[in-house]
Amino acid sequence: MNSIEVKNLTKCFGKFTSVDNISFDVKQGEVFGFLGANGAGKSTTIKMLCGILEPSEGDATVGGFSIKKESDKVKQQIGYMSQKFSLYSDLTVEENINFFASVYGLEGEKLEERKKWVLKTAGLEARTTSLTGTLSTGYKQRLALGCAVIHEPKIVFLDEPTGGVDPISRKNFWDLINNLSQQGITVFVTTHYLDEAEFCNRIMMIDAGKIIAGGSPGELKTNFLTNTILELDCSSPDKAIRLVDEVNWIKNTAYFGEFIHITLADEARNEIDTKINDIKKLLIENNIAVNRINRIAASLEDVFVNLLEKETN
Ligand SMILES: Nc1ncnc2c1ncn2[C@@H]1O[C@H](COP(=O)(O)OP(=O)(O)O)[C@@H](O)[C@H]1O
Ligand SMILES: [Mg+2]
To answer: Which residues line ligand 1 (CB under 6 A)?
Structure first.
């Protein structure tokens, strides 16, 4: 069953098209990742799907209701965590929870039960009276998520929830997202961290307002990137990347942490060992020490780097 169905959704600001005729479905209970760089159109899409921003063209149903004609009904059954976390920093943890609970009309036993749940989820049981502004970003993020789903919505929209958070908090947050999904909640989450795509059941990649790829992590790897990827560990990576970029049988290069990933062009497919030796030789001739170069399995980041490269060519 589909939780969300998007059809030809478009948003223009004046002459500028921020979201350009996008269509896709999101299944109930899945973790759906909406990936793209800053300015790609993620927040604009989320705001339309939450009924906050009216589409210029196209429509979508969220939980069976049209975002164009029934935005009030859409709002009633979703949770939304905006990019700024939307917590009041001058309220205590408990006051923030009470505020969100009252917005959704929770009271009595239900309120107490849900408050306990949010505190436990956020790991803040011992800090109910702390001012929210004094919490670390990781705690704020978990509290914001708890508040966004305090009324137990079937669908929750999270706009870059892991932005500006350290890797360990990011991982903990993804565990939380998975728990929600296991309870049957549909999670629509945006991120510009390409590595987080691996945590999603399905992904859409948006660039300049357009969908450029979509599918499960496995499908993306097999359908969108059949080229060989090499990983290079060497001295002077900047110089190495400039040299390797000039080689005509190399399709693409990119930094991956301290290493470089090299995507070979299709024509190099049948002579990988020779090509590895050629690259080694080129680097050594230019006084670059090659610590390691070997073939690796493509990650989703490799897929996206290559897709984006294609777009800009
Ligand atoms: N209210 C607005 N008026 C004009 N342009 C906007 C407005 N909101 C967003 N944009 C533009 O639309 C593009 C997409 O923005 P956004 O959806 O916020 O991207 P993302 O969330 O992926 O970073 C950007 O170029 C942004 O400047
Ligand atoms: Mg955004």
So the answer is: 13, 16, 18, 36, 38-44
